[in-house]
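Tokens help. Consider this.
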Amino acid sequence: MQFKSVVTTLIFALSVTACSSINKVVYRIDVPQGNYLQATTVTQLKTGMTAQQVQYLLGTPVLIDPYSNNTWYYVFLQQKAYETPEQHTLVVNFDQKGTVSNFDLDKPLPNEEQVEVNNTIINAPDAPTKSWWQFWK
């Protein structure tokens, strides 16, 4: 008799855990790391700008080339919930005068206009108003 109850409990426990999807139940926040790069600020970057102007526009770079201070790296890593992380790297090169000679963004940034926002308004169905004492109607 005791053996049957143990086996029944074991089968029930295995069947409950087999049907669960525990890995997607836990909420995971969006995690931006590095320099937050926006398409609007990167388009403002022009050749001929000084290092101070670039730092004012984009912030402090994540990495300055240790062998020559003429290359700055801005790295932006975005991971949304359970999706794969997406990395964008902006490399800014300066000439000997300290002005921007060229810059390169490895892949385009998402435009803020293209980001889909869920602004769906859900209207509750029109239910007739009842008093608390008219529950049988």
The chain has a mean pLDDT of 80.
